[in-house]
Amino acid sequence: MSLFDLIKLAVGALIGFGLCMLLYVPAAVSDAREAEAARLTAATNTAIGELTNEADRARVNRRLCVERGGVYIHQTGQCGERPAAIHG
Known about the structure:
The protein is mainly alpha-helical. The chain has two helices and two strands; from the N terminus they run ααββ. A hairpin with a 4-residue loop joins strand 1 and strand 2. The chain crosses the membrane at residues 6-25.
């Protein structure tokens, strides 16, 4: 095997490695973000469940709803979607 062949092989390996990293790293980051979001949601739900006062629970749920862009419906204690703006 000549020196030129070894250089071609090394360059090909580096290009292949680079392509693998370009495909793998974003997927790994996305998976990590999803796992972290799920963990935080579970921790939030656990903390809300541990609140002993119903009024405290309602305040926390309302705040979470508004922070996520929803509209808290006091009668049902549920988070609804914000209505679309009316354009004239």
